[in-house]
Amino acid sequence: MAEASGKTLMDLISADPTPIPAKSSSSASASASTSSTASPAAASAGSHLQQPMSTKTTLGEKKSKRATLTQIQNDTISVAKAALNPVKANIMPQRQRQKKKPVSYTQLARSIHELAATLDQKSSQKQLVNHVFPKLAVYNSVDPSLAPSLLMLNQQCEDRNVLRYVYYYLARILSDTGMSPGGGIPTPNWDALADIDAGGGVTRADVVPRIVNQLTSEASNSETEFHARRLQALKALTYSPSGNSELLSKLYEIVFGLLDKVADVPNKRKKGVFGTKGGDKESIIRSNLQYAAMSALRRLPLDPGNPLFLHRAAQGVSFADPVAVRHSLEILSELAARDPYSVAMTLEKLASPAGALQDILHLNDVLARVALARLCHSISRARALDERPDIRSHFNSILYQLLLDPSERVCYEAILCILGKYDNTERTDERASGWYRLTREILKLPEAPSKDKSNKTKRPQPLIKLVMRRLESSFRSFSRPVLHAAARVVQEMGKSRAAAFAMGLQDIDESVHVNAFSDVLDDAETNDSSHPEGIRRTSSISAGPGRNETIASLLASLMEVVRTTVACECVYVRGMVVKALIWMQSPHESLDELKSIIASELSDPAWPAALVNDVLLTLHARFKATPDMAVILLEIARIFATKVPGKIDADVLQLLWKTCLIGAGPDGKHTALEAVTIVLDLPPPQPGSMSGLTSLDRVSASDPKSALALQKLVQAAEWFLGENANYAASEYAWESATPPGTALMMLDADKMVAAASSRNPTLAGALTRLQRCAFSGSWEVRIVAVQALTTIAIRSGEPFRLQIYEFLYTLAEGGVQSQLSEMHLSNGEDQGVSGTGLGVLITPMLKVLDEMYVGQDELIKDMRNHDNANKEWKDEELKKLYETHERLLDFVSLFCYIPRAKYLPLGPISAKLIDTYRTKHNITASSGSTDPTVLATGISDLIYESTQPAPAASNSSGLDDDLVNAWAANLGDDGLLGNNAPAMSRVNEFIAGVGTDAPDVDEENVFSRPSVGYDDMWAKTLLENNELEEDDARSGSSSPDSTGSVESSISSHFGGMNYPSLFSSKPSSQATAKSSGSKYQSTYEGYGSPIREEPPPPYSYSEPQSRESFENPMAGSSSRSYGSDDDEPRKSTGTRFGTALYDFTAGGDDELNLTAEEELEIEYEVDGWFYVKKKRPGRDGKMAGLVPVLYVNQS
Amino acid sequence: MILAVLFANSVGNVLIERFNGVPAEERLTWRSFLVKLGAENLKGVKNEELLVACHKSVYIVYTMLGDVSIFLVGKDEYDELALAEAIFIITGAVKDICGKPPTERVFLDKYGRICLCLDEIVWNGLLENTDKDRIKRLIRLKPPSEF
Predict the structure, then answer these.
(1) Which residues in chain A have Cβ-Cβ distances shorter than 8 Å to B59?
(2) Which of A89, A223, A596, A795 could cysteine-pair with A726, CB 3.0–4.6 Å?
(3) What InterPro entries would the database entry show (chain B) (predicted)?
(4) Interface probe with A: pick from B9, B108, B140, most Cβ of A within 10 Å
(5) What proportion of chain A, given as a percentage, has pLDDT over 70?
């Protein structure tokens, strides 16, 4: 902060303009605030100002700010009093006394009052212009109590400079709505102050009507001499907030009145366009007034249905003042976006080859021409004008001519318009026909008015050639904005091209199909006859193969130039270039170049995280446009994961993995999964362990933060594998034909692995990697790996299940641990449990598998017995079997989602017997404990007897490949992207191109997410549920109790509700968390707790309902019945009632205000909070929400 | 919409800021983002050399003029090129008022007039006057075109 010059904003408000002795700004303000009695306000305000860089507001700063405000407040009150009781004392001597000390706001305000009173003296005016007004500008807003003096100055002062300031400050008073955009030294809320000082406070409400009155009367003053002031008065009026309808109608009245007088007089506009010099006085004044009126109209709200509004706006096109013309065109282009027909009709004549719009092409105002491009685009693409192809073609022709505009801004706007990018609404057909237009149409300048044009552009030119030439030359520019914009245009070109491909125009570069395409497109676009003779289909002129080659070669040479732009030192330009390259990458081209560009780019530490994520989101958008590119995009995403794990948003990457996995289709699934597993191959980020890897896969995680991020990424990848490997490998236990007996015979581990990999290399590969993760790496990574393995074990048939079982068993026994203990210690990840900790933690998972195998064994034994004795199965035996089946299903459901109706924990051979029992007892497969809560609570047996659940509404049709595929296809579509998970909304937001919110500055915040998500809260409560249930659970089910605690707490971090997963049927996973916790928590609390102490998971939904939108057809129609039954179990467990003991004020959105004595319905308990419903809405209108348990008396 | 115009000195103190259509709670973030951007990139940059950045659909163009750095944030039609245009006008006006690329001292001495100029150039988030002479006339309360 210490700065040699030491000049700060503070010096500006010092009375003495001579330089202040150099000192650091902070010390200056500090000393000022301590020593000066007259101006602590300004001084401390200054100190507040000077540190915008520090993002953390320290307590001290806050204090000083408060002190400032109090001081200003005191000062203002005294000023207000002073204004009421005129003070004789002159400010001047005071000022001289305290040289070099800043002038406080009070002093400035007082000077204005006094100088306004002594306006007749020249010195007063000088004082105002040179000292008082400029200093006042430093403050954020202006005190309304100054308004009377300002108005007095406005009426009496002759000095133009004083008056200009007066208008400036009047406008600021008008615009001030408490959050003034002024910046500068903060000022208090004047109105609040005035309220405090009930005696003499002046509020905005008091002065605004007076200001408005005076300004409106000035704005209506038609004296010639006055017209400059009239302009400023009108301008000041437009600053008033648009909420005031009375003022608004007054303004419309003034503007329309003004336009009435000045607009309709035919003026010599030709002269005006090329410069206003030499005009007569009258026409110049008129032009000035036209300008004022049009500028004011531009700031007024649009009035789309009003023909008068449209008429006035359209008149502006012919005005002499270029700024007025610009505003007029901007208004028209906005109107045309809503109602192209009437705008087109109004402008019909102006658009003709000799019309006024043609002149605007040569108007010296860039933004006017930009607005013209938008206007022409809106009209030439309007469906409403299908009847009037002539009008459309006129506008189209103007749009194409704008491609030749000398300004890049205008030319690019025209290109974007032609490409079908107008605003943020992305329409594929618009985009596709945009690409078609760009590649097929030609520009021929109209014959008529080109008197000042040289002949070189007269030859008809294909648009694509013009555009390419223009872009290529732009890329040679040294100006970074130009490079950035050009890269952006190329990106948009890529988008339109991708849309064209997606619309079935993939062979657009081949001549053979040209005519076929034009047929296709003519339906979607316009009929050929709509084009004027100037714009003809290229296909009819040159449909030879040479031409098509030209497009390809043009593109190739452009992309060559684009690639060289990566050398630009500006990282944002490079970012845009990378995005452009991603968009221009076609599915069939070699990826190597792009990959190496991105890899080398990302190695540059200058890339900010936001930009990296932007590129990642671009991959999403690219995938959405061209699902064929799934594998390519995953390859690219891999680079992000390896190069900058600390900078990317793991959620977004996850989502990309998932969408791409689905989009990859049956053939690409293996490759897609490989791309994810690559993350697991990453070495731990210790510097020593990075040898032997190719540069592409080398991790750049040198600092602890990226190491942590990498670990999270690895966890995410493991979780993803666990959830999705079965999908990718198309291996499901419930579809496996291998009877368990076969598998049991192959107890030799090596044989098993060999068999596994030969049967399904995809799954085997995933398993190998997960296994490796399960015994190396950090504790967190290992536990997730084990969990993923368990999930796969449950979902896969043999021999995979056995293979995993075997592995887990060894791991639990510590065999693997001890073998690898050396390595384990070497990477410093020992958690202090010397390896056994993990073993104990995985025991529960192992126990489930144990139970399953024991059950299978017994079943086989039983079956043999029956077979040998040739006995029929008795009903009790069947019942026992069925109960075992259901019990196992419940346990399995605690770990992961499985289709209950089809899943056979006792192996395929049990199918027949279970079926028999079901048929006998009329149990549909999906009934019983399929209900998500009951199912997952695992206390199904207990509730089952008391409350017989209704038979499921739909019989679950089980799972077949078609369903899976259909669902997958669905997911690739908006179904997935429409989900409102944070990552999805980020993706959607990106694709929609919105987002103007402020960027994250503090890099520390990269990982900071909501500390406790809803899911987490829920899971935790369940973990801490009451003992009763726990006892019941113990008696009901003995062995796999500890599973629950580990599983649930992990699943709350990595469970289905957080990551997108093919199997994460939301209801079940959510219920899993709930149930398991409630039952099994206390037993293994000791092990559960470290997990809970983990940093808050970054993957938490904030919106509980988001999981509902995640539909899972894998569960067949039963997933729908989940939703519908969702509320019932809660009620069946008994809704409780209670009364509020005390008043409670909600501290957050999900909390509920309580008034003591209020009656409540308690829905459920969450981590020390009740979710309650009120009988009637409270004052805040809320009916339900969270309240602390202690505030409620349960009845 | 030109979302923000911000002047800062060489050590990152904000001298002038004008926000349009930016929620109050985001202004602080924007301010720190811009100042940080300047601190990281503006060292050794020539006068009026334009730098560019973007965040989501918002564009940022910034430059250095004497001791003062100038930032413009815009969206929609105010893309990087339009902002470059606007910043060119602003730097031109500031140079006119200060006579040369300003030191911070000079800038502060002319603070009031610079505010008036800015008021004529950016009006309610839209670019208004672009012509130097016209701006000069308007801040002296003369009509935009004189006879």
Answers:
(1) 484
(2) A795
(3) Coatomer_zeta, Longin-like_dom_sf
(4) B108
(5) 58
- Can you give the residue ranges of every domain in chain A? 407-447+458-515+550-584, 1136-1194
A613 has a pLDDT exceeding 80 = yes
AA identity, residue A413: E
For the structural domain made of B2-138, what CATH number should be given?
Answer: 3.30.450.60
Cβ atoms within 10 Å, residue A1106: 19
pLDDT at A484: 94
Evaluate whether ipTM surpasses 0.90: yes
pLDDT score, position A814: 62
Measured between alpha carbons, how far is A85 from A81 in angstroms, rounded to an integer?
6
Mean pLDDT of chain A: 67
Chain B touched by A281 (CB under 8 Å): yes
One-letter amino acid identity for A117? A
Domain ranges of chain B: 2-138
Q: Does residue A20 sit at the B interface (CB-CB below 8 Å)?
A: no
**Residue A974 burial (CB count, 10 A):** 11
What is the nearest CA distance from B128 to chain A, expressed in angstroms?
7
- The helix (H) or strand (E) run that includes residue A94 is helix A91-97
pLDDT band at A590 (very low <50, low <70, confident <90, very high): confident
Q: Can you identify the CATH homologous superfamily of domain A1136-1194? A: SH3 Domains (2.30.30.40)
pLDDT, residue A861, reads: 84
Q: What is the DSSP string of A109-121?
A: HHHHHHHHHTTTS
The residues that bridge with A102 in the sheet, in sequence order, are A14
| Set of chain B residues whose Cβ sits within 8 Å of the Cβ of A613 | none
Which residue, A425, A350, A430, A314, is CA-closest to A383? A430
8 Å CB contact between B141 and A230: no
Which ranges in A479-591 belong to alpha helices (H)? 480-500, 514-524, 538-541, 545-564, 571-584
What pLDDT sits at residue A1165?
Answer: 81
Taking only residues 9 to 38 of chain B, the set having a beta carbon closer than 8 angstroms to any beta carbon of chain A reads 9-20, 22, 24, 26-27, 29-33, 35-36
